[in-house]
C-alpha cells in the first residue's frame, strides 16, 4: 500500500480511522482502492486517484458528477427507491470540495455499496437484460435533467475528432509500429466514410443529445445479490451525448463471447442472444423517450462504438501506449485485434 493513502483518506469528511486500503478493479484509466475502516468488518469507502493526463479539468468533472448524482438521488427517492444504493454517493473532502488535490494527484471518495455483484461478462441472458434495464433507467431518470454540464472530454465519441488524432498518430508513428499493422489500419480506413456519415446525423441534431454515461461496459454496473441491476458506477464520463453511445458501448461489452483483450480470436464473436436480451431490457426503460431515428440506429451504434474502440486501441499502440494502462508490450495491439474481430462479427450478425 502506498504510504500516503491513509493520510489522503483522513482528509475526507469521514468518521473513524482508516484500516486496510487495497487496490480494486481493472480500470484502464484511474487507480481505485477499497478503504476499510478500523473496527469494522467490511470496506466502507472507495478511493480513486483520478487520471489528470486524461481528465484535464477534474473539478469540473466532479461538479458534473455532483449535479447528476443529486438529480438521480431525488428521482430515486421520489420513486420509493434507496438513494444510497441506487446511485453513488460522493464524500466531500474536509474543505467541502468533492475532490482533494494533494499537490500531485487528484483524489475522490465515494461510499462503498455493500452486498453487490459485478461482472466482466454476462453469465446469462438475465444479466444482460438487467444491464440494459440499468442503463435505460439511468438515462430515463436523467431525461428531465436540465442543468448545464461541462464537456470535460471534448470529442470523446466524436469520430471526426478521433480521425484527426488518428491521422496525426499515423503521420508521427514515433516507434515505427505502423508498418507492422497495415491490415488493421486498412480495417479502419475502409469504414471511414460510413462512420463520418453517421456522425453527421449527430452533428446536425437529427439524433438528439441527452444526458448519458458514455462508458457503459458491464463492469460499470453493480448488481444486487439477486442479479438485478442496482447502480451505475464510474460517472467520470457523464456528458451531453446521444443515448446511442451508451447502447453501442454496452453491446461491445455484453455481446462479446470473448474478452475485450482476448488473444484467441476464435473466442471472439458477437452473441446475438445477449444482444437481444440487452435490447429488451434497455427498451423496457428507454422505450418511452427514444425517438424513431434513435431506435433505427441502435444496431449501427454497436458497430460505431466498437469501430471507435479499434481505432483508439490501435492508435494508442502506434503512439507508444501513452493513454491506456497496459499489462504487456503488445496489449493495445491485442485489444485492437480482438475488437476488430468483434466489429466484423457485429457487421455479420446485425447486417450493419
Ligand atoms: C476506459 O478506465 P475505464 O475502464 O473506465 C475508457 C473508455 C473505454 C474503456 C475500454 C475516459 O474506461 O472510453 O471504452 O477504457 N475511458 C476513457 O475498456 O477513456
Ligand atoms: Mg470509465
Average pLDDT value? Answer: 97
Low-confidence stretches: none
Structural class: alpha+beta
End-to-end distance, in Å?
A: 48 Å
Q: Compute the number of strand runs.
A: 11
| Helix-residue proportion | 40-55%
Strand content: 5-15%
What is the N-to-C succession of helices and strands?
A: HEEEHHEEEEHHHHEEEEHHHHH
Largest sheet: 6 strands, antiparallel
Oligomer: single chain
| C-alpha geometry | globular
Radius of gyration: 20 Å
Say which molecules are bound, naming each kind only once. Answer: 2-acetamido-2-deoxy-1-O-phosphono-alpha-D-glucopyranose, magnesium ion
In DSSP terms (H or I, runs of 4 or more residues), the helix count works out at 12
Structural description of this entry:
By secondary structure, this protein is of the alpha+beta class. Helix content is about 45%, strand content about 15%. The chain contains 12 helices and 11 strands. Strands 1, 2, 3, 4, 5 and 6 form a 6-stranded antiparallel β-sheet that branches. Strand 9 and strand 10 form a beta hairpin. Helix 4 (about 125-140) runs parallel beside helix 9, helix 8 (about 245-255) packs across helix 11 and helix 11 packs antiparallel against helix 12 (about 330-350). The protein is globular. It starts with a helix and ends with a helix. The mean pLDDT is about 95. Magnesium ion binds near residues 215 and 237.
Amino acid at each position: 500500500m502506498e504510504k500516503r493513502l491513509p493520510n489522503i483518506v483522513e482528509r475526507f469528511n469521514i468518521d473513524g480511522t482508516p484500516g486496510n486500503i487495497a487496490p480494486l478493479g481493472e480500470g484502464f484509466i484511474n487507480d481505485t482502492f477499497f478503504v476499510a475502516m478500523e473496527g469494522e468488518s467490511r470496506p466502507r469507502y472507495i478511493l480513486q486517484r483520478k487520471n489528470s493526463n486524461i481528465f484535464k479539468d477534474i473539478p469540473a468533472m466532479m461538479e458534473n458528477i455532483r449535479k447528476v448524482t443529486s438529480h438521480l438521488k431525488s428521482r430515486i427517492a421520489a420513486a420509493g427507491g434507496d438513494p444510497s444504493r441506487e446511485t453513488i454517493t460522493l464524500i466531500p473532502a474536509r474543505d467541502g470540495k468533492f475532490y482533494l488535490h494533494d499537490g500531485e494527484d487528484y483524489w475522490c471518495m465515494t461510499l462503498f455499496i455493500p452486498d453487490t455483484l459485478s461482472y466482466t461478462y454476462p453469465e446469462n441472458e438475465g444479466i444482460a437484460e438487467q444491464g440494459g434495464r440499468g442503463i435505460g433507467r439511468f438515462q430515463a431518470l436523467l431525461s428531465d435533467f436540465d442543468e448545464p454540464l461541462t464537456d470535460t472530454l471534448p470529442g470523446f465519441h466524436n469520430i471526426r475528432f478521433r480521425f484527426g488524432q488518428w491521422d496525426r498518430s499515423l503521420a508521427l508513428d514515433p516507434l515505427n509500429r505502423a508498418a507492422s499493422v497495415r491490415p488493421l489500419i486498412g480495417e479502419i480506413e475502409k469504414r471511414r466514410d460510413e462512420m463520418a456519415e453517421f456522425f453527421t446525423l449527430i452533428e446536425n441534431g437529427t439524433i438528439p443529445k441527452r444526458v448519458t454515461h458514455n462508458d457503459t461496459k458491464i463492469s460499470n454496473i453493480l448488481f444486487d445479490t439477486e442479479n438485478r441491476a442496482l447502480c451505475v458506477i464510474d460517472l467520470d464520463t457523464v456528458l451531453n451525448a446521444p443515448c446511442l453511445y451508451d447502447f453501442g458501448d454496452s453491446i461491445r461489452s455484453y455481446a462479446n463471447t470473448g474478452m475485450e483483450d482476448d488473444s484467441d480470436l476464435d473466442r471472439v464473436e458477437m452473441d446475438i442472444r445477449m444482444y437481444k436480451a440487452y435490447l429488451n431490457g434497455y427498451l423496457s426503460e428507454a422505450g418511452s423517450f427514444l425517438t424513431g431515428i434513435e431506435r433505427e440506429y441502435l444496431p449501427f451504434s454497436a458497430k460505431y462504438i466498437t469501430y471507435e474502440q479499434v481505432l483508439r486501441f490501435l492508435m494508442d499502440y502506434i503512439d507508444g501506449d501513452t493513454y491506456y494502462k497496459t499489462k504487456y508490450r503488445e496489449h493495445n495491439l491485442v485489444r485492437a485485434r480482438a475488437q476488430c474481430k468483434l466489429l466484423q462479427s457485429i457487421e455479420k450478425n446485425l447486417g450493419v
